[in-house]
Write a structure and sequence with these properties.
With about 270 residues, the protein is an alpha/beta fold. The chain folds into two domains: about 130 residues; about 120 residues, Trna Endonuclease, Chain: A, domain 1 (3-Layer(aba) Sandwich), CATH 3.40.1350. It has five helices and six strands; from the N terminus they run H-H-E-E-E-H-H-E-H-E-E. Strands 1-2-3-4-5-6 form a six-stranded mixed β-sheet, with helices on both faces. Helix 1 packs across helix 2. The radius of gyration is 61 Å and the shape is rod-shaped.
């Protein structure tokens, strides 16, 4: 009987230990499950954090790329603008330089032309003074300029006849310094070393009977031209009033001194 009781007690102990072990195992399983749940939750949160970080990283990269593109566009635009301004400035500087160069060339050319005119005037003056001393002013100064004189005064360009020291004996003996025929015009010149008012009056009187000396030019228009090396302005005005072409020393040997638009008197 005692042996059965001992065995029952021992069985109770084993059952108690088993229950204790089962209870401990159940608690450990619950703890394990809780740990697994926490681990899964942590893993989920970690994955979500990783995914969010990846999204944030991609967004940052996208924004950085957009900023880089915007900066690149802005820098490119600024570079183009700088190049455009630089090109515009360069073209402006080139235009200014070209303008300055042309102005300098023009001034240089004007200076050169002025010097040449002065040189030509000096040479003509010396030549005129020499011709005056030799008494050959009409041949040396007036005759070579007749085509230009007629062109200025009448517009005529085709010289048909020109001669110096033309002597006529009818209606009386008279010498004419230069005679030139151009189309319907006949130019009669008288040249004086020193011109005076009386010379102008005398020449007009001679021109009033000029057709009697040149019947061969009947039907043509006669004009008178009086020349001298140095002609006072008052003589130019007086000669112009009489309808005479007044010639004086200038760049083209003898220049027409009359006012622009002057129309000579026809005799």
């Amino acid at each position: 009987m005692l042996e059965i009781e001992d065995r029952v007690n021992h069985l109770d102990e084993l059952m108690a230990q088993l229950l204790k072990t089962v209870d401990q195992t159940s608690r450990e399983m619950r703890e394990f499950k809780e740990e697994m749940r926490e681990f899964k939750e942590e893993s989920r949160q970690s994955r979500e954090r990783s995914e969010q970080e990846m999204r944030d990283f991609k967004e940052e990269m996208r924004l950085a790329h957009e900023r880089a593109e915007e900066r690149s566009k802005r820098e490119t635009q600024e570079f183009r603008e700088e190049m455009r301004e630089s090109h515009k400035q360069f073209r402006e500087e080139m235009r200014e330089s070209h303008k300055q160069f042309r102005e300098e060339m023009r001034e240089s050319h004007e200076q050169f032309r002025g010097e040449m005119r002065e040189t030509k005037r000096d040479l003509n003056k010396k030549w005129g003074e020499l011709s005056n001393k030799l008494g050959t002013m009409a041949e040396d100064l007036v005759a070579p300029g007749v085509p230009n004189i007629l062109k200025q005064v009448t517009g005529c360009t085709q010289i048909k006849y020109s001669a110096v020291r033309v002597r006529k004996s009818e209606p009386r003996t008279q010498e004419f310094d230069v005679v030139a025929v151009c189309e319907e015009w006949v130019l009669i010149n008288e040249t004086k070393s020193r011109l005076r008012h009386k010379h102008l009056d005398d020449f007009v009187e001679l021109m009033q009977e000029i057709r009697e000396f040149f019947p061969e030019f009947a039907g043509k228009k006669f004009i008178g031209a009086i020349a001298s090396l140095y002609v006072d302005e008052s003589l130019v005005r007086y000669g112009e009033k009489l309808g005479l072409v007044v010639l004086g020393f200038g760049e083209e040997l003898m220049d027409v001194l009359n006012s622009p638009g002057f129309v000579p008197r026809m005799f």
